[in-house]
Automatic annotation (TrEMBL):
<protein>
    <submittedName>
        <fullName>(Fe-S)-binding protein</fullName>
    </submittedName>
</protein>
<dbReference type="Pfam" id="PF02754">
    <property type="entry name" value="CCG"/>
</dbReference>
<dbReference type="GO" id="GO:0005829">
    <property type="term" value="C:cytosol"/>
</dbReference>
<dbReference type="InterPro" id="IPR004017">
    <property type="entry name" value="Cys_rich_dom"/>
</dbReference>
<feature type="domain" description="Cysteine-rich">
    <location>
        <begin position="124"/>
        <end position="218"/>
    </location>
</feature>
<feature type="domain" description="Cysteine-rich">
    <location>
        <begin position="4"/>
        <end position="83"/>
    </location>
</feature>
<dbReference type="GO" id="GO:0016491">
    <property type="term" value="F:oxidoreductase activity"/>
</dbReference>
Length: 257
């Protein structure tokens, strides 16, 4: 399988370790390439009400990833943006977008991972991002009577040593919401603090999620208040033992200009 590695712009700039962890996971399932011509998916423009301004970004995405069997990225929000806006704005990209998956989807649905050689001996709370949960249906929502597999939780349960911690309000928004955190900063901060306190009250040492954007928001609040809890992306936990096995050599990554 030839896999195109899609890394969101903010992950590339601020959290490269998440990209590396995603790479280490994907290398188990095929030849992975990182097209260096990729840029932002265009989500910030759409979130700000300037949807058509993201067409250029979608065109770049199409040109960068059209040659791969599948495209995988560690961000449900970016993948959802492409699905909801990309085809409408740039119909030629449909074939590429149709084979683009969030990391959770790829592991659980495409290659059907049912066991992992991973080890993470900590108390971890899973933060369900709104885009992943309500947009991509990675699990069941509390406001709906439905039974969907919680794909991220199922993946985490395969990790040795982990203890999953459940907050009192299991799928509440963290308050990030992209530009919402800028235009409604006071509300956003209150929502984020409520989430963090709920996780801490239930004994979590780490907060994880499939969306680094939510974790970035929570991390800012944690650092400002010097709270005793950490954030970590889902990919980093799932690849935790893999990293130990490969730490003696740098991972091989093919770039495509």
């Amino acid at each position: 399988m030839k896999i195109g590695l899609f890394i969101p712009c903010y992950v590339n700039q601020l959290y490269p370790e998440v990209g590396m962890a995603t790479l280490q996971l994907l290398e188990q399932f095929g030849e992975v390439e990182y097209p260096t011509s990729q840029t932002c998916c265009g989500q910030p423009m759409a979130n700000s009400g300037c949807e058509k301004d993201s067409i250029g970004s979608i065109k770049v995405f199409f040109e960068a990833f059209q040659k791969y069997d599948v495209v995988v990225g560690p961000s449900a929000s970016c993948v959802l943006h492409l699905r909801e806006h990309g085809v409408k704005l740039f119909p030629e990209a449909k074939e590429v977008i149709d084979k683009t998956y969030d990391l959770t989807e790829f592991l659980y649905d495409v290659v059907e991972v049912r066991s992992l050689e991973s080890y993470f001996p900590y108390k971890v709370a899973l933060h369900k991002s709104c885009h992943g949960l309500r947009g991509m249906r990675l699990g069941s929502c509390s406001e709906k009577v439905e039974r969907l597999p919680n794909k991220q939780r199922q993946l985490l349960k395969m990790v040795d040593g982990i203890q999953l911690i459940f907050p009192s309000r299991r799928d509440e928004c963290c308050g990030f919401g992209g530009t919402f955190s800028v235009t409604e900063s006071d509300v956003s901060v209150r929502m984020g603090n409520d989430r963090i306190q709920d996780y801490m009250n239930n004994g979590a040492e780490y907060i994880t999620s499939g969306d680094m954007s939510c974790l970035m928001h929570l991390e800012g609040l944690i650092q400002r208040q010097k709270l005793d809890i950490k954030i970590i992306h889902l990919s980093q936990i799932l690849s935790s033992d893999i990293k130990k096995k490969t730490e003696q050599k740098a991972p091989k990554l093919t770039t495509h200009a």
